[in-house]
């Protein structure tokens, strides 16, 4: 049986959705699929890793947001040349583009994956519904996202599936050796919180810094490490200085050693206003970290309240701070137990190998359905 899959993503960068696409591509290649990855925008990361794995990477080189027919024509030509059995798109721009291209470059199966509970407002939800006939199945990375998409009419219930993100539990795992080494390198001691993500509005770092300033008031030895970059970073550095917590917050920039960095922390914190199925929470859980996170998107599918961490309402620094202090006040053995349960939970429900099993099963189901239709 032919096994060719084209993965289309809005971009290739060090974001959660893009990282998930890369991991799926490499695992599928290892299972015998012929795989290529198409980035709508010029790629910023992962090209070398994909090509080393034997995966061709193509770019549509779209750099502007205004309507432009060129990507449709470029993608149509690429599909006709490569002739995939399955086109699997990820994120809203790639999803809509793949649907619009299908009449001009037919493929046996088109799957579109939404990575957020809200992909950009009512107009995009309407566009999803209008273009739904061109797609065989839409998938959502969180059950909460699935229910919302059905509720707002973006996708009919019979054409949407839940398939979560997956985490490599061998790459992200507890390591005392990494813990001692990285803490020494960073010169941190005491209770260390970690946050990883771009400095953009959805991550709501102002709420995190407001909350952490309250934590430091009663716990002056607490530290907060933030790994990532983005347009709001300088504003957040200024805010930390204004709150008097400049010495307790380390802005680390982009890091290539996230598994090791997570081992240096005692707990993970997330203050996002909205999410889909955050990779960083899966990674933190796999590393054995208890978590305090906002109760948005699929976060509560990862963070089990009172068992693997605590949830707080979004945009509420007082509640976030209380949850952080509550976790810090637990006996060390209780926190370690929460971390062990967190790892067990993601290993059972979100391991990368199990998630790729789900994708293969869906691919094969839809291809069988296509063959039956063609034969009838």
Shape: elongated
Instruction: Kindly provide the name of the CATH class of the largest domain.
Output: Alpha Beta
Q: Give the strand content.
A: 15-25%
Distance between the termini: 19 Å
Look at the helices and sheets and give the structural class.
alpha/beta
Radius of gyration: 21 Å
Range of helix content? 40-55%
Strand arrangement in the largest pleated sheet: 3-2-1-4-5-6-7
Number of helices: 15
State the CATH architecture of the largest domain: 3-Layer(aba) Sandwich
Low-confidence stretches: none
Summarize the main sheet: 7 strands, parallel
Q: How would you name the CATH homologous superfamily of the largest domain?
A: Glycogen Phosphorylase B
Structure description:
The strands form 2 sheets. The chain has a 7-stranded parallel sheet with strand order 3-2-1-4-5-6-7, with helices on both faces. A 6-stranded parallel sheet has the order 10-9-8-11-12-13, with helices on both faces. The radius of gyration is 21 Å and the shape is elongated. The longest helix is centred in the C-terminal third of the chain and has 24 residues, at 352-375. 47% of the residues are buried. The chain has 2 domains: 4-166 and 351-375, Glycogen Phosphorylase B (Rossmann fold), CATH 3.40.50.2000; 176-349, Rossmann fold. The chain contains 15 helices and 13 strands. Strand 5, helix 5 and strand 6 (137-140) form a beta-alpha-beta unit. By secondary structure, it is α/β, with parallel strands linked by helices.
